[in-house]
Amino acid sequence: MNIVKTVDAKGLSCPMPLVKTKKAIDELTSGQVLEVHTTDKGAKNDLAAWAKVSGHKLIEMKEENGVLIFLIEKA
């Protein structure tokens, strides 16, 4: 898997992790992977729902030391 870009949204609260994710994914081409790091627990539902509605693929969601890490493949 080739992660093309990483978004650091740690310390930001809703809706900023989603706003930063949307902006970053717009800069990618189809099939490229975006990695998002956030400490906002609400992002678990927000980013998963947004990816589904937008047609992007949530490849992985994990938590490491209080940081949620998302891997999203652009549609």
From TrEMBL:
<comment type="similarity">
    <text>Belongs to the sulfur carrier protein TusA family.</text>
</comment>
<protein>
    <submittedName>
        <fullName>TusA-related sulfurtransferase</fullName>
    </submittedName>
</protein>
<keyword id="KW-0808">Transferase</keyword>
<dbReference type="InterPro" id="IPR036868">
    <property type="entry name" value="TusA-like_sf"/>
</dbReference>
<dbReference type="GO" id="GO:0016740">
    <property type="term" value="F:transferase activity"/>
</dbReference>
<feature type="domain" description="UPF0033">
    <location>
        <begin position="7"/>
        <end position="31"/>
    </location>
</feature>
<dbReference type="InterPro" id="IPR001455">
    <property type="entry name" value="TusA-like"/>
</dbReference>
<dbReference type="Pfam" id="PF01206">
    <property type="entry name" value="TusA"/>
</dbReference>
